[in-house]
Design goal:
The complex is a heterodimer. By secondary structure, chain A is mainly alpha-helical. Chain A has 13 helices and 2 strands; from the N terminus they run αααααβααααβαααα. Chain B has a single domain, classed as ABC transporter involved in vitamin B12 uptake, BtuC. The longest helix of chain B has about 30 residues. The chains are: A mainly alpha, B mainly alpha. Chains A and B meet through helix 5, helix 10 and helix 12 of A and helix 4, helix 9 and helix 11 of B.
Chain lengths: ~325, ~300
């Protein structure tokens, strides 16, 4: 890895971090408070994309069902809030669990449930490889999508509207600027965790499996368990993104779990540069900003986005990260 | 009982549709090792062309012909311009590029035909019903779909097992370097197989036209079920695709009918219907998970 690449990426990352930290003031200065909302969204999607990159980029497991975990995290928040709004007991009153909108309680619960779901889906899906793995993760995500569509009690196709965001003691999340900083903090925390993880022994085993699975098996590593652990951690990250997304929009619908949403997350990872920590963040920002710009000109922006993606795949494999790196190695 | 019989036939008819989709897709997987998400777009192109042409000409058969030609042509162009460059790439690139194709086709269709779904009429000469067993009239159009499926399955069997072209395709599936070294034009073979798959997808789309609403994004709902079929049947196996397609079609249709009835035995009516509907929509995927736990490579694995 050439030194110039690291320093160049660090420079860009530092500039971006400064920009993100000051964004609410900048939005104020431009007189455009919508920027805060837009960038909250970008930070949330960046979080989901970074978590997906752990399995796609570092683990070499192409999952086309990552939106399922984003959706499950969002639905936990929404369902608990829904019961609080309606005053209806959870689980028909069978279990003594109270509906709740306290962030400190609900958010970790949502992350844990997403992680458990990922562990379950991963345990079955990881029995297969390659093409089958792609299709199975896709099929499981669609299964959950149809499950939520069929849950008429929770709005079915129409989804659930939240009355308010979750409550956090000492911080008013209803304020967009406060919420923006919560998103930024979540992303930075997750990136820090990922960095620790990727360069740990665990991360090396997962990356080694991507390069040569039979070899890692012969070396005596329980590869399946490592991969499942990575899949579960990625699910937890996506769950956190879902929690934030539900709070940001104050609305959830089965559309969150739809497979095109999973596809978009993959696009972010690849566009930014997979197998890098910051790449997916750049990718999420690029895709969402591009959507924003294109949709200002034409409602048919997807007609242009599609061929653009094909060109990126065919000619610009290393993504934005590779582009920042210049001629250097894509891995950082 | 009569209702059960009717649902069984409906399941068979869905199975035939899934077979038409998965036969082409499983060949493309098996031979070129490429994952093509845009296979559903070919189905959509077939449905739109069939609906438009039959609406303007008043002839269903003309619409069908147009759909077959158009989907084969679009498939050909797709292979030549995009897919061909992806054969040597990893699956992730294939997923992303064909995802781009889906966005392009879905939005393109919206630009040409608008956001409103098109509705297509069942042709006059197939609009009646047939009493297969006394007292249970069944729409002849759906029976015709089943018949077409049987004919296509027969055609594919003859093509693959009793012609030179079929032999080459099978050889290409097991070892593409070897067959290229023997002087067979593998590029042409790939293009032909892809066009055949596209044609079958277009046929499925055209026949689905009078049953479903023809709209942008219609290809994706059947694409996901097609994937389930291919995973259950075993990637690259036409026989597996046939068995799995009928299995998935039947489970999907009968599940929606039987599960609520079954749950009514234990639960109050309203919650039984709700839970039954949820379970039914998940039943196919539960089936897939069960098959994979039992046989990770599907029922009829084609390779090694």
């Amino acid at each position: 890895m050439p030194g110039s690449c690291v320093s160049r990426v660090s420079l860009v990352a530092a500039c971006c971090a400064l920009l993100l930290a000051l964004l609410p003031w900048l939005a104020d200065a431009f007189g455009d408070p919508y920027l805060v909302t837009l960038f909250s969204r970008i930070l949330i999607y960046a979080l989901a994309a970074v978590s997906l990159d752990l399995i796609i980029g570092y683990g070499g497991m192409v999952s086309l069902g990552h939106a399922a975990f984003v959706g499950s995290g969002a639905y936990v928040v929404a369902i608990l809030a829904f019961h609080l709004q309606e005053g209806a007991p959870l689980f028909g009153g069978f279990l003594d669990i109270q509906a709740n909108d306290q962030a400190l309680l609900v958010w970790p619960l949502a992350v844990v449930i997403s992680a458990l779901l990922a562990a379950l889906i991963g345990a079955i899906s990881l029995r297969t490889r390659g093409m089958q793995f792609i299709m199975i993760t896709l099929a499981f995500a669609q299964m959950l999508y149809y499950l939520f569509v069929s849950l008429e009690g929770y709005g079915g196709d129409d989804g659930i509207s939240l009355w308010s965001r979750s409550r956090l003691p000492g911080l008013d999340l209803a304020d967009n600027v406060n919420f923006y900083y919560v998103c930024l903090a979540s992303l930075l925390l997750f990136l820090w965790l990922m960095r620790r993880l990727v360069y740990s022994r665990f991360g090396r085993v997962v990356r080694g499996t991507r390069e040569n699975q039979p070899r890692m098996e012969s070396l005596g590593f329980p590869v399946y368990r490592y991969q499942l652990a990575a899949f579960t951690i990625a699910g937890a990250g996506a769950g956190l993104a879902g929690v934030l997304l539900a709070n940001q929009n104050e609305f959830v619908s089965p559309g969150l779990l739809h497979w095109t949403h999973s596809g978009e997350l993959i696009v972010m990872v690849l566009l930014g540069g997979m197998g890098t920590l910051l790449g997916p963040v750049f990718g999420a920002a690029a895709l969402l900003l591009m959507e924003e710009l294109l949709s200002a000109y034409t409602e048919h922006w997807m007609f242009f986005l599609g061929p653009f993606l094909i060109l990126v795949v065919l000619f610009a494999k290393r993504g934005i990260y590779g582009w920042i790196c210049g001629g250097g190695d894509g891995h950082g | 009982m009569l209702l059960f019989f009717e649902q069984l036939l409906n399941g068979l008819q869905l199975g035939v549709m899934l077979f038409l989709m998965s036969a082409g897709l499983t060949l493309v997987f098996g031979i070129m090792r490429v994952i093509n998400l845009a296979h559903g777009s070919l189905y959509m192109v077939g449905a739109y062309l069939a609906a438009t042409v039959s609406l303007h000409s008043g002839s269903f058969l003309l619409g069908l012909l147009a759909a077959l030609l158009a989907s084969a042509l679009v498939g050909l162009l797709m292979e030549l311009m995009v897919l061909r460059r992806l054969y040597q790439r990893d699956h992730l690139d294939q997923v992303l590029a064909t995802f781009g194709l889906i966005l392009f086709f879905n939005e393109g269709v919206r630009m040409i035909w608008g956001r409103q779904p098109l509705f297509m009429d069942v042709p006059q000469w197939l609009s009646g019903t047939v009493e297969l067993i006394p007292g249970a009239p069944y729409p002849s159009y759906r029976l015709a779909i089943i018949l077409v499926g049987v004919l296509v399955a027969l055609f594919l069997y003859l093509l693959f097992n009793h012609t030179r072209l079929g032999m080459r395709i099978r050889a290409g599936a097991s070892n593409r370097e070897m067959i290229a070294a023997l002087g067979i034009n593998i590029k042409l073979l790939n293009t032909l197989v892809f066009a055949l798959g596209a044609l079958l997808a277009g046929l499925a789309g055209a026949m689905a036209g009078p049953i479903l609403a023809v709209e942008s994004g219609m290809g994706e709902s059947i694409l996901i079920l097609t994937f389930v079929v291919i995973v259950i049947g075993g990637v690259g196996s036409i026989r597996g695709a046939l068995v799995a397609a009928l299995l998935v079609g039947t489970v999907e249709t009968l599940g929606g009918y039987l599960l609520p009835l079954l749950l009514r035995l234990f639960l109050p009516l309203a919650s039984a219907d709700g839970a039954g509907a949820s379970l039914a929509s998940m039943s196919v995927y539960i089936l897939m998970a069960a098959v994979l736990v039992w046989r990770p490579r599907g029922l009829f694995p084609a390779h090694d």
